[in-house]
Write the structure tokens for this entry.
Amino acid sequence: MKLLVCISKTPDTTSKIAFTEGNTKFDENGVQWIINPYDEWYALVRAIEMKEQDPAVTIHLVTVGEADAEPIIRKALALGGDEAIRINIQSNDSFVVASQIAAIAKEGAYDLILTGKETIDYNSACIGSMLSGLLDMPFVSLANHMVLNGNTATVKREIEGGEETCEVVLPAIVSCQKGMAEQRIPNMRGIMAARTKPLKVVEPIAVQATTSIKTYDLPPAKSGVKLVAADNVEELVRLLKEEAKAF
Amino acid sequence: MVLIYIDQADQQIKKSSLEAISYGAALAKQLGVTAEGILLGTVTDDLASLGKYGLQKLHQVADASLNHFDAKVFTQVLTEAAKAANASVLVFAHNLNGKAIAPAVAVKLHAGIVTGANSLPDTSNGFTVTKTVFSGKAFAQINIDTPIKVISINQNCFGVHLQEGACALEALSIAIPAASTKVTTTHKVEGEIPLTEANLVVSGGRGLKGPENWGIIEDLAKVLGAATACSRPVSDSDWRPHHEHVGQTGVQVAPNLYIAVGISGAIQHLAGVNRSKTIVVINKDPEAPFFKAADYGIVGDAFEVLPALTAAIQKSKA
């Protein structure tokens, strides 16, 4: 059983977001980088759990990024992947990123490809779906539970107001979210082992980007909170009804 | 032509799709083209009445096997439909199913896509779509540089707009590929308002001290007809189910009104709520950072304020 887990580098959740070059570029100054939480906590850790249950499982990690993505992929290896592939290109276009991963996926003949439900920087939630389009594979999105049984996976996915359980024949792509696995911290043994695990760097395939970022904006600041006394909730109800027209 | 994907569940058109129709119709008008819809499966709604949201024509693949969502099958059928209709722009709701298939359809059509759009694109010079990035901490204006464009719109950002008009219906016959998934069970929480579709949300944090105290949140939500939500520590402690977690790594909401009770307002939580139209914060700590992001606030004990607020709202509605 061969698993491919897609890993993305994102700014830490506490990062203050700012832009440079006339609001056309994300300001990386002082930013701490982490593994995209959905990729790490849910996709990767679930893959590791599967390997712990069945040693015949092999986990490959893939990331699309330049050399500055290496600490992130090493950290992912410290958590537990077997080997990693870095595709040497930086892109904000989901189609370019998905096409690179699809090229690796075709070569590797993976049984299961896992992604996080979205990255916390561009929030596009595109990669899993695009991979299914590029590879013509079944896709189960927003999964919060998954078990393997032979050549099928039983997956719970979120639907409006609930969840459904479905069976999918492998090979397949699953995007993972909360509930899938419990967060882990790499241990010393994992960190040491990660140093010698294979990390292959491959050059990107040529693909035309489909989108381009024109500019970034920060949300307008709130004009200031209107405080209401705790013993005057009627005033709050009046403001919400008449001023804010909230209900 | 703008083609709008109309999503259904349990043979009923979803509210988020009505918003997508309104958005697609406004975009079609802006571009001087027709607004048409594509519906997979069969529904009990009156389809001709979709004209009142601005839809001019509806293409329907009325095969009951499509009443069950299957990302791979839907991607293929929608791709064929978009090609047959010669669509230049496709519009999806950025809901659970939209997220699953819109990017795949875009790939099949060699189209650029922006997911989670907040407003109509600027088409004065190119095709530029504004979306939320960094989980609500910023916006990006993104150009789609391909002849065919795909947009999925954030829920509750555009609204449902009614107008005069009738919708023509056209049956579409497309070969349906074999299913790639088999649904074995479906579990729905009865009587609960789905968080992402809610206009009003009441959310609780650690300040409530324990799951046994959630009655005051639920009571307030009930009189308002609101959905309930929570902060991350609350769902991590299993006080509330995971699907209620609002924030950067949980659900991002954009309701008319978000009432935060006993939530300090960490940057990750604010990222999930800052598209809300009105934010009310109730917290006993006047220094809680959430007050800086709020429109209205009460510094006070939730256990006293909430029951009083619930009663006051009930009275105002009587």
